[in-house]
Every structure is written in structure tokens, then in C-alpha cells.
Amino acid sequence: MGTTAILSAILTLLSGIGIFLVACQMMSSNLESASSAKLKSLFARASRSKLIGVGIGTVGTAAIQSSGATTVMTIGFVNAGIITLSQAATIIFGANIGTTVTAQIVALGMFGSNALSTTVIFSAFAGIGALMMMFAKSSNTRTWGGILTGFGMLFVGLSLMSGSMEDFAALDGVRIFLAKISNPLLLVLIGAVLTAIIQSSSVMTSIALAMCVTGLISLNQGIFLTMGSNIGSCIVAIIAGMTSGANAKRTALIHLLFNCSGVIVFLVAGWLLNVLSGNSLSFGILFEKMFPDAPQTQLAMFHTFFNVATVMFMLPLTDALVGFVTKIIRTGDVSGNETLRLHYVDDNMLQAPPVAVGQTKREILRMADLSMANFDRSLDIITTLNFSERELFDSTEQEINFINKSLVDFVVKLSDRRGLGGRDKLFLSTVYRTVRDVERIGDYAENIVEYADALSAAGDKFSDEALYEISQLRILVHSLYDKVISAYSRENMEDLDQANIIEEQIDDFTKRMEDDHIERLNKGICNANTGAQYMELSSNTERIADHLINVAKTIRAFQTGA
I need a labelling partner for 329 at 20 to 30 A (CA). Which of 139, 192, 376, 543 fits? Predict the structure, then answer.
């Protein structure tokens, strides 16, 4: 084989890797979109059972075909304080099992050399899916077309990689060189480094499968490369954890320690197996006997066995592992009480857009609670002229403003991600105005506190009649808020209708407040200064009601598609 042929084989390998990576991304994003509702309920579930945590990680990773996405998303949940470190650990354990599905699919596609091969059959799905994406009118059909296209492209890339391996296998120099690499630690290191570079254990495992099938490497060499790929896959979690809080860093470290522990245990077990059998047994020999004449199945089954066994070994040690990483990483506030941060979303969740959408709504609801809490404080301050909660009010207003900016920035990034369903995109289009409406509630509460400052500076206060009317107005606003939140969170049109009725009652009530105030002015019960602050309070509260109803009205977009 000449230089041109070698260069061609290298370029073919790179082409196969590129197509394989694109296929994985296409499958992942479209699978996320197709299963968005299930993913939201799956990952939002905080479980007390370690086995359920493993199940969530396994099913979630198998569904979206990306252990990296599952791990990064889990880091995001931990960083947001949604799940504990123990729960995150079990989900990551399960993700390692779920990622073996890809290797099993790839192995299945390598059968059939004399007849019509499964690789050719499965590759044809790329064309079928592409036609569905081009001509289907339904967005759901186009999504499934994207899944089929990604699935088919997976085998197109695999075919190219296998072809390049056959070319390399024809080179005596390459075979001799690879045959010399028999040291398990070196093979594990090579697998880890290559996986860290391409950031995909699925690609590394698929390359190892192709090399085994073409005879370029032995099954034992493939086993050690695959074990190393598990360590290299941690690079995605490490990168995500480095940019996040202490608990996120701990989660990334758990992922690394888990995979390294599995590799160490299997290296020791393999060495003992070899020594005790007098060099007659190894993992490779055992799996060759269990699955004869099918090297692709032998390596794929070892990959699954390795990850399942590692989970079984590490699961009872979860609490000890969590305690260890907690002692190692002590920096930062890990209590979940950090100020000026988003509590339910961070950039790590961009790896799973459908789940991030659900968390965005939770962040908005939290922001609404903060705004209403400040509205209550503002009324307490102006009615009692007690400013003891002024510092808390100011810090909450600062947090509301922070959420306003940070959440909008997050939604801009999220809106550009693939894998979002039609309803998710529709929801995100309403977020910008919703966040602005909620932020304005805080601004009007700030105005009310300023009116309290004016009253206090002048030595004035509201009359008993005015205080009673303010208390009644507060009750109405809270009734409106309850209906608005119920309508918004549950997308309930009946609650929206009731919210509209209450909002009209608030309009009528604030108009009566103005009339009653004028009557009190004429009677000399109130002076001009208290009257001015009272009228402004009434007007600002009425505008708060307007912004609240605007939040609830966004659900009409989901009913009408407008």
C-alpha cells in the first residue's frame, strides 16, 4: 500500500468519525425533542432510592443516546440544588449503563458479510428519514425523520470507519506495531486520551469494534481500549464542573472516580484471572468462548458487562464516595444558599433543551414569588412605617433584577439549541415578556417603598380608613396571584378566566379607593401629602395586577398557537 492509499485510509477514517459524531448529535437532539415530556418528568423526579436513580440515568441516556448530555445535565441539577450529590451519583452510574446501548447497536450493524449486511440495511434509514424531514408537514413526523436519518448516518460513518480499518489491516507495519502494544495500562491510557480528544466514548468504542472485526487488534486490546474510553468520557463532566459551583465539581469528581475505580477493579481482576489460570484465561478468552465467531458482539457485551458490574460494585459505596469528594472539595458555599444565582437552570442544562425548558418555568415561578414577597414587604413598610425589612427588600430587588437579566441570557442560548419541540419553542417565545412583567412587579413595589420614605420624612401616615382599604386591596391582589400562578403553571384556561374577573375587581376597587380618598380630603381626614402617596400606591398596585394578568395570558398561545 502506497502513501496515497495510506492517506486515503486516514481521510476515510476521519470522514467516518465526523459522520458518526454528527449522527449521534442528530439522534440525540431529535430523540430529546420526541421524548421531551417524558424526559422532563423523568429527570425532575427526585428519588430516595439508589436503584431508581440508576434507572433514571440508564433510561435517560438510552433515550437521548448521550451519556455526556446526561452527566452534564445532572451536574446542572446539582448546581441548582434540585438533586443531592447521592442522587446525582446514582444517575451517573446509570448513564454509564445506558451508553452501552450505542455499542450494542453498532455491533448489530456489523453482521452479514456475504449477504446483504445489516450495515447497508440500517444505512438506508438515512435516506428514508431525510425524505420524511423534507416532505412531512407534521413537526412530529419531521422529528422522527431526524431520528431515522441520524440512525442511518450512524452506520454510514461506521461503514467508512470499518473500511479504513480494513485498509490499515492490510499493512504489515501497522499490524506489527499494534501487536506490540500489549501492556494493559498503556492501552487504557491510549483509549482515555483518544476519547478525551474526540469527546465521545461511543466513537472510541465503535472504532475499537471495527478494529477487532477487521483483525487489526485482538479482543483483549479492544477491551482495554474500551475501558480507557470510560475514563476519557469524564472530560465532558470535568469541563462542565470547572465552570460551576462546588457541588458541580464534586459531581464531576464522582464521575471520574467511579469510572477509574471500575477500570482499576477490572485490571486487577484480569491480572488475577490470568495468574490463577496459568496464563490460560483472560476476559478476551472468556468472551470469545461465550460469543464465538462474533468479535463485535464479544466486545460490545464486555462493554455492557463492565459497566453493569462496576455499578453493582460501586452502588453500595455511594455514600462513602459522596463523603470522600465532599472532604476533597471544600471551596465555595455548598449549602444551596448562594445569592445572585439562578436556582433551577445553568448553562450545563443546555445539553438537554427539553428539560431546560421545564426548569426555566420553575425559575420564572421562583422569580414571581420573590416579586410578590417584595410587594408584601412594601405594603408592610408603607402601612406601618417600620423599615426593619428594608435591607431584605433591597437585596431581594437586586436578586429579581439579576434573575431578569440572567434568565433572558439563558433563554437566548436555549432558543438556539436543537431538540426543542413546537410547544417548547412557543413557550420560550413568551418568556421574554413574562420575565419583564414579573420584574416590573418588583419595580412597582420599590416605588411603594419610596412613597413610604416620603411619608416618613414628612411625619405623615395613612388614616385608619386608608389602611383598611389597602388591606382589602392586598387580599384581592393575592387572590389574583394565586389564580395567575395556577393558570400559568398548569396552563389552565379556567383559572385564567377567574383571574380576569379578579383583575377587573381590582380595577373597580382602585377606582373606589380614589373616590374615597377625595371624600376624605374634603373632610380633612387626609392631607395633600398622604393623599398623593395613597393615590400613587393605588395606581402602582393596579399596574401590578396588569402585569400579573399578562403573565397568565401567555397560556393562550398554547391553546390557539398564536
Answer: 192
CB of 520 closer than 8 Å to CB of 510: no
pLDDT tens profile 453-463? 999 998 998 98
pLDDT at 419 (0 to 100) = 65
Torsion sign (Cα): 209, 212, 216, 217: positive
In one-letter notation, the amino acid at residue 437 is D
Question: Which one-letter DSSP state was computed for residue 347?
Answer: G
Rounded Cα distance, 532 and 535, in Å: 5
Q: In the chain, what is the straight-line distance between the N-terminal and C-terminal CA atoms, in Å?
A: 63
Distance CA 207, CA 275 (A): 30
Question: Helix 353-384 and helix 528-553: axis angle, to 10°?
Answer: 160
Residue 243 CB neighbour total at 10 angstroms: 13
336 contacts: CB under 8 Å, gap ≥ 6: 81
The answer to whether 189 and 19 have CB atoms below 8 angstroms apart is no
DSSP structure string for 124-156: HHHHHHHHHHHH--SHHHHHHHHHHHHHHHHHH
Concatenated DSSP letters for 433-492?
HHHHHHHHHHHHHHHHHHHHHHHHHHT----HHHHHHHHHHHHHHHHHHHHHHHHHHHT-
Q: What is the DSSP string of 35-52?
A: THHHHHHHHT---S-HHH
More confidently predicted of 21 and 289: 289
Cell triple for 85: 450529590
Alpha carbon distance 404, 190 (integer Å) = 46
Side chain identity, residue 250: R
pLDDT at site 264: 94
**Percent above pLDDT 70 for the chain:** 86
- Side-chain-side CA neighbours of 281 within 13 Å: the count stands at 13
- List the one residue out of 516, 421, 409 whose CA is nearest residue 464: 516
Q: How many CB atoms lie within 10 A of CB 215?
A: 12
Give the residue among 162, 130, 136 at the shortest CA–CA distance from 148. 130
Q: What is the reported pTM?
A: 0.66
Q: Which amino acid is at 215?
A: G
Residue 248: which of 414, 91, 80 has the closest Cα? 80
Q: Residue type for 103, please?
A: A
Q: Residue 311 in contact with residue 93, Cβ under 8 Å?
A: yes
509 pLDDT exceeds 70?
yes
